[in-house]
Design a protein that fits this description.
- By secondary structure, this protein is of the alpha/beta class.
- It folds into three domains: about 260 residues, Aldolase class I (TIM Barrel); about 90 residues, no CATH class; about 120 residues, Alpha-isopropylmalate synthase LeuA, regulatory domain (Double Stranded RNA Binding Domain).
- The chain contains 17 helices and 17 strands.
- Strands 1-2-3-4-5-6-7-8 form an eight-stranded parallel barrel, surrounded by eight helices.
- Strand 1, helix 1 and strand 2 form a beta-alpha-beta unit.
- Helix 13 packs across helix 14.
- The relative contact order is 0.07.
- Bound molecules: 3-methyl-2-oxobutanoic acid (KIV).
- The site of 3-methyl-2-oxobutanoic acid has 8 residues, from strand 5.
- It comes from Halococcoides cellulosivorans.
- InterPro entries: 2-isopropylmalate_synth_dimer, AIPM/Hcit_synth_CS, Aldolase_TIM, LeuA/HCS_post-cat, LeuA_allosteric_dom_sf, PYR_CT.
- Belongs to the alpha-IPM synthase/homocitrate synthase family.
- One of its GO terms (molecular function) is 2-isopropylmalate synthase activity.
- Keywords: Amino-acid biosynthesis, Branched-chain amino acid biosynthesis, Transferase.
Length: about 500
């Protein structure tokens, strides 16, 4: 066993760690992000369902629209404590109260830079003002957390004096803020252990040095009992600590339950869709590759024992394991992938498929299910009869509502044109395809949809990759075209075709 620093406590002995989610406030401060009231309400419900303790719903001083959104979240009757960010001014607290929140995250300057250069006040005045604001907020029955902004660069004696005064004035808790994410673990330990002597302490870390999770764990060992973070780690600059990473580290490493981890992936996808910030493929817990194995050695090991190359089962966080094919594929992985699609091959055929998969992978290409099935047909001589095809696609987009019309053929039989509207031409075209297949397409779920530009410029060729599933079968297809709508529809129809078209699901024309 490794030794433990004398100023820390063993994390496994902690009885409770609370999570404060600031996706709707600090997360939204990521460049270019703005979420609608509907999106924020939806995310807040998801966070509450997942058992998050405190939801910082926004920043009341930002403006009227923001206040309406905070009020909407406060009105959802959630189990979580709903708060607003406020600066160290009385008007902000009044505005937060006007939104009907349970509490405030009162942010006051703590470092010399912030006290003297940003707010242009003195240490003593800043302290006095903080005390008065805490008294004002608690007199109005608000839950109050006082955050010393830029605390990790503050004079530790002043930070202790400021936040100690806040606790004495009645604040429910204080927060150590590594605002610019510059603290090392030992600095975090030194600061948080001093603050923990004063009262309940939260920790708010940023990832500028890639140390956000480490600093959270050190903060907890030093005496903090609440963690601020965002889903997916979005936030200013390099982002805040990712709450799902904290939650899995605590659960897996120390047996501490903080939130319903199996809901975290869906939440992360909801946040990604609302913010437009894609989840990086290699992101822990929620990234596309987090439970995907490609190399022959890992695939073979995983087929023998699920846990061979995984720290915990993907289902823990609402995910599924995937075996991918590419340059590093091995024979057993190729055979397993073929078996998933009910394709039987003899040893010579397997060898041919394996060699072709590797060749394709070496050309820097990810080998999709559709590629694998086409390769297997070449090797076995058994060809697949395509049943569903796109005959025509027209889209109208511009100032009005985007509309798409599709004509498909089933078993060579051309169907009537079907039109649908959507949020954009791709969405409209996908709805038209679903309608054209009269619910059959809908019964096949669109699990993922990715677009990559493979050339630059306005005439760029894009590759659309979709994964569709029905029951426990799923198929991934990639299609490239200079027209993104066409690539999307072709990919989707091909996936549906590969999933199989039950005869009774094919609509007959009147
Ligand atoms: C103002 C606070 C809480 C903040 O977002 C930070 O310090 O990063």
């Amino acid at each position: 066993m490794f030794g433990r620093h004398p100023d820390t406590r063993a994390l496994s002995e902690l009885s409770k760690v609370q999570l404060l989610d600031t996706t709707l406030r600090d997360g939204e401060q990521a460049p270019g992000v703005s979420m609608s009231a509907d999106e924020k309400a939806h995310i807040a419900r998801g966070l509450d369902d997942a058992g998050i303790d405190v939801i910082e719903a926004g920043s009341a001083p930002t403006g009227q629209q923001e206040r309406e959104t905070i009020a909407r979240v406060a009105d959802l009757d959630l189990d979580a404590t709903v708060t607003s960010f406020t600066r160290g001014v009385k008007r902000d607290i009044d505005q937060a109260m006007g939104c009907g929140v349970d509490g405030i995250n009162l942010v006051v300057p703590a470092s010399d830079r912030h006290v003297r250069e940003k707010v242009a006040t003195s240490w003593a005045e800043n302290r006095q003002q903080t005390v008065e604001l805490v008294e004002y907020a608690t007199d109005h029955d608000l839950w109050v957390e006082v955050i010393g902004e830029d605390g990790s660069r503050a004079d530790p004696d002043y930070l202790e004096d400021l936040l100690g005064a806040a606790i004495d004035a009645g604040a429910d808790r204080i927060c150590y803020a590594d605002t610019v994410g510059h603290a090392t673990p030992d600095r975090t330990l030194a600061y948080v252990s001093r603050l923990a002597e004063l009262g309940p302490v939260s920790t708010h870390t940023h990832d500028d040095l890639g140390l956000a999770v480490t600093n959270v764990l050190v903060s907890l060992a030093a005496g903090a009992d609440m963690v601020h973070g965002t889903i997916g780690g979005i936030g200013e600059r390099a982002g805040n600590v990712a709450l799902e990473e904290v939650a899995i580290a605590l659960a897996h490493g120390y047996g501490i339950e903080t939130m319903a981890l199996e809901q975290v992936y869906e939440l992360a996808q909801t946040v990604a869709a609302a913010t437009g910030i894609d989840l990086p493929p290699n992101k822990a817990v929620v990234g596309e590759n987090a439970f995907t194995h490609e190399s022959g050695i890992h695939t073979d090991g995983t087929l023998k024992d699920d846990a061979m190359y995984e720290p915990y089962p993907p289902e823990t966080v609402g995910r599924q394991r995937r075996l991918a094919l590419g340059k590093h594929a091995g024979r057993s992985g190729v055979r397993a992938a073929l078996e998933e699609h009910d394709v039987e091959v003899d040893d010579d055929e397997l060898e041919a498929v394996f060699q072709r998969v590797k060749q394709l992978g070496e050309r820097d290409k990810r080998v999709t299910d559709a590629d694998l099935l086409a390769i297997a047909e070449e090797a076995t001589g058994e060809t697949h009869e395509r049943r569903v095809e796109l005959v025509e696609l027209t889209t109208v987009a511009g100032v009005g509502t985007p509309t798409a019309t599709v004509v498909i053929s089933v078993d060579g039989d051309e169907r009537d044109p079907v039109s649908a509207t959507g949020t954009g031409p791709v969405d409209a075209a996908i709805s038209a395809v679903e309608e054209a297949l009269a619910g059959h397409a809908a019964a096949a779920a669109l699990d993922s949809y990715h677009v990559d530009a493979i050339t630059g410029g306005t005439d760029a060729v894009v590759t659309v990759e979709v994964t569709m599933s029905r029951g426990d079968r799923s198929v991934t297809v990639a299609q490239s075209d200079s027209d993104i709508t066409r690539a999307s529809v072709e990919a989707m129809l091909y996936a549906i075709d590969r999933l199989g078209v039950p005869d009774d699901a094919v609509p007959a024309d009147d």
